[in-house]
Design brief:
The complex is a heterodimer of chains A (131) and B (589). In chain A, 44% of the residues are buried. A five-stranded parallel beta sheet of chain A has the order 2-1-3-4-5, sandwiched between helices. Chain A has helices at 13-25, 36-46, 62-71, 92-96, 110-121, 124-130; strands at 5-9, 29-33, 50-54, 80-85, 100-106. Chain A is built from six helices and five strands; from the N terminus they run βαβαβαβαβαα. Chain B is of the alpha+beta class. Chain B folds into four domains: 2-139; 140-252, no CATH class; 254-348, Beta-Lactamase (2-Layer Sandwich), CATH 3.30.450.20; 428-580, Histidine kinase-like ATPase, C-terminal domain (Heat Shock Protein 90), CATH 3.30.565.10. Chain B has 14 helices and 16 strands. Chain B has helices at residues 2-56, 60-74, 141-187, 204-253, 272-277, 282-285, 297-307, 350-386, 392-424, 436-453, 473-489, 521-526, 537-540, 548-558, and strands at residues 78-83, 88-91, 119-125, 129-136, 257-261, 267-270, 315-321, 328-336, 342-348, 432-435, 457-461, 468-471, 496-503, 507-514, 562-568, 572-580. In chain B, the strands form four sheets. Chain B has a five-stranded antiparallel beta sheet, sandwiched between helices. A five-stranded mixed beta sheet of chain B has the order 11-13-14-16-15. A four-stranded antiparallel beta sheet of chain B has the order 2-1-4-3. The longest helix of chain B is centred in the first third of the chain and has 55 residues, at 2-56. Chain B is rod-shaped. The chains are: A alpha/beta (131), B alpha+beta (589).
Chain lengths: 131, 589
């Protein structure tokens, strides 16, 4: 398991499947979760280089996940890329309480998302090289 | 009346005066006559000897001269000498009556005389016979003249007075009779006072009576006017009271609250709805400062603006009364009134706000539902474009996902359109023969993958043969898939969802049972309401519009069928759809 790890959280299986396929092709290790609860558990366990999360999820939504991550020392530095509906705005106060670095409105392009992840945490190989 | 009495008194006094004067003067006349008689008697007595002596000597001339002198000197009215048979021998006043020649033999007796005034002295003329000497000194002419004048004048006056009094009495009697008749008429109920007037010419009492009648007429007219005025006032008061009563009852029947405020912003009036909205009673609200009727600070602040005399603009604000599920959202329209005070109109907009929130949630959910398949399609299309043509398996996988997501989009758009049509009452069914077997095969195919992805056991219990029914295929499919999709959505991983279908010659029965989160009885009773979502926090974490089951119910109802649910919280739910196979289809209400 070399390379950086990306955690993808979405209750929509097609999206997690498609994104996981793409990022694996780019050399990243990919973990997937279907809700915020599962995502937080996986984040604590693997400390990924970045987290891609849907905003609207059952049980624990994306914003709550991001806040939890921010408050936990183990995960407070993990950048979060939030997928959300177009026009949906996250308040500055909520943003301060999270580590959300980018918001991507749906429907989005997988290529653009890949470029953002690359910009945020660098290529997958660096992680592998550092390790 | 007074004039009549004066006339009567004057008449009585005049008659008494005349009578008294008549009595006094008559005695004077009697005394004068007596004196005259006495003087006549004295003259006759003194004269008889002288006359008898001269006639004895046949000196009729000397006797005549003596008698004439005496008559002249004594102003005798009568100085006459006659024989016993009345033959006039001498007459100082009427010479023509004197017999020119005396008979040779004089009558020996003397006839009696009817005269009451003259003094008669019978004297015997020696040798010839008796003669009668008649002397009359005459009536006291002045007294007689006064008496006659007075008698005439007094008598005339008395007669006139008596006649006048008689006439007056008659007129008065006639007047009183007419007045009596008028009184009898009034007593009998005569209302027309013109009919009880008497003739003015009758007497003073007639005019007085008419004056009384006029005054009575005036009083009656005034009384009628006052009564009419009182009736109008009374009617007005009654009408006003009635109007106020009607307005109050109308106001109480309104479902909006009305609150009238005094210039000092205290409640002057409120209808029943206002009392209910404000969680109080009318009696408790009246007199209370308006700001104390509302609990939240924003409402108090708005009412404070209303109390500010400089602010005369209409204010509209919303406030919440109560807490929790029983809270009421009130829309308050406050309008200042001319002359001070204000009117508050309270509307319960709780349901509107709930509907607004539900619609907003629906839009949010709907856009999310649309964006998800769109995102999936876009991701797949990017992969297809990038994937080499040689990777047939990967391309087929992506194309399959795109196909599924397109159908998903179709369902979502179909749901939204159907909901819109049902909301507008324009949902139209397209009836046709529907072969039920293929319908359930498609549904099974659509949901099997979805259930598998969620690790659910989806079982279809279909009979060997399903009939053909009359209905709208797409709408029926929509209703069943909505219920089935709901079951899969709210059943945790590892759960079971069973679709049981059976049909007889009358109806189709579809039961969809799950081992999901279940519902409370309260939620179960409302689960088919539009925009309703159960209070269970587990539900709020799951995307949904709150319209799927409402839409299913409407479609089933339009097919003449029914839908129900039995549910046990934390155990699961069983939805049952019954649709007649050949029932006449109904249009949306």
């Amino acid at each position: 398991m070399g390379g950086k790890t990306i955690l993808i959280c979405d209750d929509e299986t097609v999206i997690t499947f498609m994104l996981a396929s793409r990022f694996r092709e780019l050399g990243y290790n990919v973990l997937t979760g279907s809700d915020g609860e599962e995502g937080f558990r996986l984040a604590c366990e693997s400390i990924p280089a970045a987290i891609i999360s849907d905003f609207q999820m059952p049980r624990v939504d994306g914003l709550q996940l991001a806040k939890r991550l921010k408050t936990d020392q183990r995960t407070s530095a993990i950048p979060v890329l939030m997928l959300t509906a177009r026009g949906h705005r996250i308040s500055p106060r909520d943003l301060q309480e999270t580590n959300i670095v980018q918001v991507m409105p749906k429907p989005f392009s997988a290529k653009e998302l890949s470029a953002m992840v690359l910009d945020i945490c660098g290529p997958a190989s660096e992680d592998r090289a550092a390790a | 009346m007074v004039g009549g009495l004066l006339i009567a008194y004057a008449g009585v006094v005049a008659v008494a005066t005349v009578a008294a004067w008549w009595g006094v003067h008559s005695r004077e006349i009697a005394q004068a006559r007596n004196a005259s008689r006495q003087r006549s008697d004295a003259i006759a007595a003194a004269l008889k000897g002288e006359i008898a002596e001269r006639l004895k000597s046949d000196d009729r001339g000397a006797a005549r001269a003596l008698l004439a002198d005496l008559a002249a000197s004594q102003q005798l009215t009568t100085a006459r000498v006659t024989l016993g048979d009345g033959t006039v021998v001498l007459d100082a006043r009427d010479a023509a009556a004197v017999a020119s020649k005396l008979p040779a033999k004089w009558p020996s007796s003397v006839a009696s005389s009817a005269s009451s005034l003259a003094s008669r002295e019978v004297v015997e003329v020696a040798g010839k016979g008796p003669i009668v000497i008649e002397i009359d000194a005459g009536e006291p002419t002045e007294a007689m003249s006064d008496l006659e004048t007075f008698t005439l004048a007094g008598g005339g006056l008395c007669v006139a007075i008596v006649i006048g009094l008689g006439i007056a009495a008659r007129r008065r009697t006639r007047s009183l009779a007419e007045v009596g008749d008028a009184l009898a008429a009034i007593a009998a109920g005569e209302q027309d006072l013109k009919a009880v007037r008497v003739r003015e010419a009758l007497a003073g009492s007639g005019a007085a009576w008419n004056a009384l009648v006029d005054e009575l007429s005036t009083l009656r007219l005034r009384k009628r006017l006052e009564e009419a005025s009182e009736r109008r006032t009374s009617a007005s008061v009654v009408a006003t009271a009635t109007s106020e009563d009607v307005v109050a009852r109308l106001a109480d029947s309104l479902w909006i609250g009305l609150v009238g405020l005094e210039p000092d912003m205290r409640v002057r009036y409120c209808n029943g709805a206002a009392g209910i909205f404000l969680g109080s009673t009318r009696d408790k609200l009246v007199g209370k400062p308006a700001a104390e009727c509302f609990s939240d600070a924003a409402a108090k602040n708005e009412l404070g603006k209303l109390a500010d005399a400089r602010s005369r603009a209409r204010l509209i604000f919303e406030t919440t009364v109560g807490e929790g599920e029983g809270a009421t959202v009130l829309r308050v329209s406050a309008r200042p009134l001319n002359g001070g005070g204000a009117m508050l109109v309270l509307e319960d907009v709780t349901q509107q706000r709930i509907a607004d929130r539900s619609r907003n949630a629906f839009v949010e959910q709907a856009t999310h539902e649309l964006r998800t398949p769109l995102t999936n399609i876009r991701l797949c299309m990017e992969e297809l474009l990038d994937a080499p043509e040689s990777d047939v398996a990967k391309r087929a996988q992506h194309l399959n996902v795109v196909n599924q997501e397109v159908r998903r989009l179709e369902r979502i758009v179909g749901d939204m359109l159907s909901i819109s049509e049902i909301e507008a009452g324009t949902l139209q069914l397209t009836p046709a023969d529907v072969r039920l077997a293929p319908v359930f095969e498609e549904i099974q195919a659509d949901f099997t993958q979805q259930a598998k992805a969620k690790n659910l056991r989806l079982t279809f219990a279909l009979p060997p043969k399903l009939p053909t029914m009359v209905g709208d295929r797409d709408k029926l499919t929509l209703a069943i898939t909505n219920v089935l999709g709901n079951a899969i959505k709210y059943t945790p991983e590892g759960g079971d969802v069973t679709v049981s279908v059976r049909a007889d010659d009358k109806e189709l029965i579809v039961q969809i049972a799950d081992t999901g989160i279940g519902m409370s009885p309260d939620d179960a009773s409302k689960v088919f309401e539009r925009f309703y979502r159960a209070k269970d926090p587990r539900v709020s974490k799951i995307t949904g519009t709150g319209l799927g089951l409402a839409l299913a119910r409407d479609v089933v109802k339009l097919h003449g069928g029914d839908i129900g649910v039995e549910s046990i919280k934390d155990k699961g739910s069983t939805f049952t759809i019954r649709v007649p196979l050949s029932a006449p289809l109904r249009h949306a209400a």
